Amino acid sequence: MAHVIDDFESLEWPQLEKKYADIHDARDWHLEGIKRNIAVHGKDNIRPIMYRPFDIGKPTTHRFREDS
């Protein structure tokens, strides 16, 4: 993770787009905003979090049959 943060801090936008082509903007955050936040606030403010620590379910897919 530290190398990704370093890349966002040091690389220019075209280099980031090329290196991280599979990472895209999401509804609630944008890659340009991440780069700007790292530049303004520094990488010391980035901390690990426990996202949904008790969510241990496994995603499943079901095929439902329509009964006639």
Summarize the structure.
With 68 residues, the chain is mainly alpha-helical. It is built from three helices and no strands. It has a domain at 2-45.
Account of the 3D structure:
There is one protein chain. This protein is an all-alpha fold and 68 residues long. The protein has a domain at 2-45. Helices cover 40% and strands 0% of the residues. The termini are far apart. The model has no long low-confidence stretch (mean pLDDT 76).
Write the layout of secondary structure elements.
Layout: H1 2-10, H2 13-19, H3 31-41
Key attributes of the depicted protein:
68 residues; mainly alpha; 40% helix; globular
Q: Roughly what fraction of the amino acids lie in strands?
A: under 5%
Helix-residue proportion: 25-40%
Number of strands: 0
Estimated radius of gyration: 18 Å
Major beta sheet summary:
none
How many separate helices?
Answer: 3
Low-confidence stretches: none
Structural class of the helices, strands and pairings?
mainly alpha
- CA(first)-CA(last) distance: 52 Å
Mean pLDDT: 76
Task: State the shape.
Answer: globular
N-to-C order of helices and strands? HHH
